[in-house]
Amino acid sequence: MGPMTVTAPSSSGTLRPAPGAPADDRQRAWWRTAVIYQVFLRSFADGNGDGVGDVPGLRSRLGHLAALGVDAVWVNPWYPSPMVDVGYDVADYRDVDPRFGTLADAEALVAEAHALGLRVLLDIVPNHTSSAHPWFRAALAGDPAARARYLFRPGRGPGGDLPPNDWESCFRGPAWTRTVDADGRPGEWYLHMFAPEQPDLDWTSPEVRAEFEDVLRFWFDRGVDGFRVDVAHGLVKAPGLPDARGADRRTEPHPGWDQDGVHEVYRQWRAVADAYDPPRVFVAEAWVPRPERLPLYLRPDELHTAFEFDPLHVAWRPGPWRRVVERGLAAAAASGAPSAWALTNHDVVRQVTRYARSQPPEKGSNEAERARWGTEAPDLELGRWRARAAATMTMALPGAAYLYSGEELGLQEVEDIPDARRLDPIHTRSGGTDPGRDGSRVPLPWSGTEPPYGFSPPGSAPTWLPQPSGWAGLTAAAQEADPGSTLRLYRTLLARRRQLMTGPEPLEWLSAPEGVLAFARGAAQCWVSFGPDDVALPEGWRVVVSSRPGVDAVLPPDTAVWLVPVGAPEPAA
Ligand code: GLC
Predict the structure, then answer these.
(1) Rounded Cα gap, residues 502 and 69, in angstroms
(2) Which residue puts its alpha carbon closest to atom 9 of ligand 1?
(3) Which of 21, 167, 263, 550 is deepest in the core (most CB within 10 A)?
(4) CATH fold match for the domains 4-129+207-480 and 134-191
(5) Would you list the domain boundaries of the chain?
(6) Ligand 1 pocket by Cβ (under 6 Å)
(7) Which residues share a beta bridge with 152?
(8) Cα 16 to chain center, whole Å?
(9) Closest CA to ligand 1's atom 5
(10) Dihedral over alpha carbons 108, 114, 119, 122 (to 10 degrees)
(11) Cis peptide bond N-terminal to 242, omega within 30
């Protein structure tokens, strides 16, 4: 493969300070190269002993995140919620669920994080509320103004017995549920792209728009630095809610997703965020079916970044990975927004497990991955080496990067949660055929040799999902003491990334033997071997970071290294 240069956005990009601009403008573009840690709050740390992670638990473990070297945290929804979908069913956007703490805890968290140099992003869920939200309760009670904030429609067919259109819920089954009128007779249907307990809002409603701008301000006024925007491509639906006629929402245009009208919403949100000092930021969860439309969300007056989703499912193979990186950097060049890389999150099978089985030709999927549990035994040691190599590669890429709770400990997916303990609506709505996402959401092991591994204080209620036996060696405390651990690798990666991999230089592919990807970032290089052979590293270069201990002149399979020229000064620890 020949050398090829992909121009990455500069580290300051569109926010490059104009001559005479205030000196802190560069500082304001922190998000362009940041490493952001996703705190899955329920499973991070339990402060009050109820077996569920909470804000006091997170506050008590902020030191772990500061020592890891991340720039910011993103906290999954912490709002009052019936927790049908782990809090993505919000009943009150301006408070904290009592199981997670209080608003005062939230304010203290923001202050303490800031004192440690960590920014705080929250998760806003604008596509739908909980069915327990006062607006939806009023709508069900027949209040016309409240109904106009959701998508109620008469059914089709005799007696209106059929759903208003053919859309399917992302959690399986129809995207419509029929209501019962006050007189006990079947009434209209309402739309829910996810669970029935998550009714979709009607974003043509001025009241809905005003409400969310106010919610943004509520949290920005409390010092929150930005939001991850849940289902950012979903808010606006095609007028008239036409049938999708079998269109696959993931790969084909679909009237329920990625409609042009959504951009007006984000232009208004950007104005709200820009009115703050420093300006607040957004990262979009936008699974657009046509990737060429993603840059539309990233125009300078809309959202700041959007997750790259290809890495969540790409096979551990050099060709597919190179294509993923090239596509991401080309998108960044087209939009001027930095890539936001992630290897995993709370919705996908953990990478250690994805890489622990035979690899698909190009990419996999959650469903395909989970379907082979129980039939193909995972080689977790192999999966862990590959996951470490993947992290070493990703941390060298231009742009921002997201880490997900427990990734830095090398946790695997927990496949054997008993069905009766599974809580993900995907499990129930699939009739139990798909285990769902719980296996990636198991409470973190902090210390000790058996559950709850320091997650909860001694004598606490059982953890909300069971932890496996065999995590004693993966606790943060055990890994702290082991220089070859995954935790120590991540710390080294984050520290050296700042020194070596966040400059404005483009990424330049280098020629490399079969099975290897190699690229330069300024004065440093990253080499990644996908196997199967040992490969000699170039002469005149030395290893400063390695995903596997003891790598020197030869790169073993499933390993990645960062190199600097021999004689270059040792990067500070
Ligand atoms: C997003 C979240 C996912 C949630 C869904 C519905 O995809 O990441 O966890 O189930 O939105 O809110």
Answers:
(1) 14
(2) 347
(3) 167
(4) no
(5) 4-129+207-480, 134-191
(6) 85, 88, 125, 194, 230-231, 285, 346-347
(7) 190
(8) 27
(9) 88
(10) 10
(11) no
Helix (H, G, I), strand (E, B) or coil at 6: strand
Q: Return d(Cα 472, Cα 451) in angstroms, integer.
A: 9
Per residue in 361-413, pLDDT (tens digit) is: 999 999 999 999 999 999 999 999 999 999 999 999 999 999 999 999 999 99
Which token pair is 44?
């991070």
Cα separation, 30 vs 74, whole angstroms: 15
Class of CATH domain 4-129+207-480: alpha beta
134-191 CATH: 3.90.400.10
What average pLDDT does the structure give for the chain?
94
Secondary structure element (H or E) that encloses residue 510, with its range: strand 507-510
pLDDT grade for 28, boundaries at 50, 70 and 90:
low
Separation between Cα atoms, residue 227 and residue 276, nearest integer Å: 14
Instruction: Report the alpha-carbon distance of residue 1 to residue 322 in Å, rounded.
Output: 11
User: What's the CA-to-centroid distance between 420 and ligand 1, angstroms?
Assistant: 22
Ligand 1 closest atom vs CA 346: 9
pTM summary value:
0.95
24 has pLDDT over 90: no
d(CA 410, CA 393): 15
Q: Which residues are paired to 542 by β-bridges?
A: 564
Which residues does 546 contact at the CB level (< 8 Å), separation at least 6? Answer: 392, 559, 560, 561, 562
pLDDT for position 570: 75
CA of 299 to the centre of ligand 1 (A): 24
pLDDT tens profile 128-168: 999 999 999 999 999 999 999 999 999 999 999 999 999 99
